[in-house]
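The instructor's notes for this session suggest beginning with a concrete chain rather than abstract definitions. Hand out the sequence below and ask the class to guess, before any prediction is shown, which regions might be ordered.
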Amino acid sequence: MSELRRVTAALALVVAAASTAQAQNYGVPMFTNPNFGSGVRIHVDAGRPSKNLNSVSLTTVQGGLTFAIGPVGIGAFAAGNFNDIKGCTSGGAIKCSNTYFSGAAQAQLRIMGGGRNPLALSLFGGAGTDFSSYEVAANVNAPHLLSIPVGGAVGLKFGPLHVWGAPRYNFYKWVSCGGTCPDASKGTFRYAVGVNLPVGPLGIRAAYDGGKLFGETIGFFGVGVSLGLGSQQ
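After discussion, reveal the predicted structure:
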């Protein structure tokens, strides 16, 4: 990609980033329950902006995989707008070419609690960005705004119910723009609060994610279900 095309693409993504970049996949809360168990789990989540809870067109669908052993948990997720996914699967390559998706990964280290202890504390970090179907199909190395969350989580167990809260700070960094990267946005403070309920091999979770995002106060509600092997504490 030429320098001019890199600069043009980077400036275009500055505008797009306000609606697509997040510490987690945009539109879905960042789930960071420190009372995680062990084993492998498959997750499906859905989220909407708190100001548009009735808008199906703003629904984000997320799928992912998590693995935990001892005090260490890691996860990887991919997400997209529900209507965009429908259009991409039914409208062919042309309709799908301008569709954006997002991907995120996170790691969590429990520093206190676990097992029968009802109180748990953890530290976590991760990275997330957006990408287009065209980039993947054409193998284009386009500029991306990387979002890097760093924070801590506290959780309490009330019988089978897990309740948790997790403040974090999001750092931002432009990558893959050939030395012509624009200045990244200043970091922002965000938080998430949620509940998890183990039901046999299933896990049900819900959360709210709020705080500043590119100068605006934006919140998301999300719910999800998981299925896996191993304990959920």
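Then share the key points. Confidence is low (pLDDT under 50) at residues 1-23. The first helix runs from residue 3 to 20.
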